[in-house]
């Protein structure tokens, strides 16, 4: 009898594990109508489209040099270095490792933070669900959510700074254009930055 009970439990666990779905990190940058500001959960209206001058690039801040006034209160993303640097208004710097976009999915220029979201939901686009019918309409907050525990939305309408359910991707070119951070790092950054913060994305 005990053997039958153990066998039944083993079968039940196998079925539950087979139904569990872990969603790979996905940023949706290359999906039109993806995770933009038409989101039903966004607390902010769509921002005006911002198109930086082609090829515009500000020089990378030398961390050893004294900070200029213009560097304060900004986020600087050094794509090649897989690094995000936030400088507070009083000049304190926070440097974080990040994952950046894959080749051909990278964006450079100047934008700004327009909104933030704690425990964001992930909503696969219709085209994503067409490619993978097993994807649900929405992935609720939790350990399987590809956006992690925090999302910071930028004014271009598609890019985000967010957490990840794949910390091994940090330090690599892994995303579809967004910037992934360790959960503890994005939670710290989230608490410090506010809408309007300037974001400079460099090569």
UniProtKB/TrEMBL annotation:
Residue ranges constituting the L,D-TPase catalytic domain according to the UniProt record: 73-202
Name of the protein: L,D-transpeptidase domain-containing protein
InterPro entries (alphabetical): LD-transpeptidase, LD_TPept_cat_dom, Transpep_catalytic_dom
Annotated organism of origin: Rhizobium etli bv. mimosae str. IE4771
Keywords, in A-Z order: Cell shape, Cell wall biogenesis/degradation, Glycosyltransferase, Hydrolase, Peptidoglycan synthesis, Signal, Transferase
Any single biological process term in GO: cell wall organization
Sample GO molecular function, one term: peptidoglycan L,D-transpeptidase activity
Family, similarity comment: Belongs to the YkuD family.
Pathway: Cell wall biogenesis; peptidoglycan biosynthesis
Domain of life where this protein originates: Bacteria
One Gene Ontology cellular component annotation held by this UniProt entry: extracellular region
Active-site residues per Swiss-Prot or TrEMBL entry: 162 (proton donor/acceptor), 178 (nucleophile)
Annotated signal peptide: 1-20
């Amino acid at each position: 009898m005990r053997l039958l009970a153990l066998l039944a439990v083993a079968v039940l666990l196998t079925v539950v594990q087979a139904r569990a779905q872990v969603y790979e990190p996905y940023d949706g940058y290359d999906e039109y109508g993806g995770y933009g500001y038409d989101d039903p959960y966004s607390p902010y209206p769509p921002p005006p489209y911002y198109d930086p001058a082609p090829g515009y690039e500000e020089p990378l801040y030398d961390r050893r040099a004294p900070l200029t006034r213009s560097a304060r209160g900004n986020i600087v993303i050094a794509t090649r270095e897989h690094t995000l640097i936030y400088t507070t208004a009083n000049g304190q710097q926070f440097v974080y490792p990040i994952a950046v976009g894959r080749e051909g999915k990278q964006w450079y220029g100047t934008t700004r933070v327009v909104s933030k979201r704690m425990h964001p939901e992930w909503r696969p686009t219709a085209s994503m669900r067409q490619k993978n019918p097993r994807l649900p309409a929405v992935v609720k907050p939790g350990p399987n959510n590809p956006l992690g525990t925090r999302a910071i939305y930028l004014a271009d309408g598609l890019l985000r700074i967010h957490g990840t359910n794949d910390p091994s991707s940090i330090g690599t070119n892994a995303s579809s254009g967004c910037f992934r951070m360790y959960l503890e790092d994005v939670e710290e950054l989230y608490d410090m930055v506010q809408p309007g913060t300037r974001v400079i994305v460099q090569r």
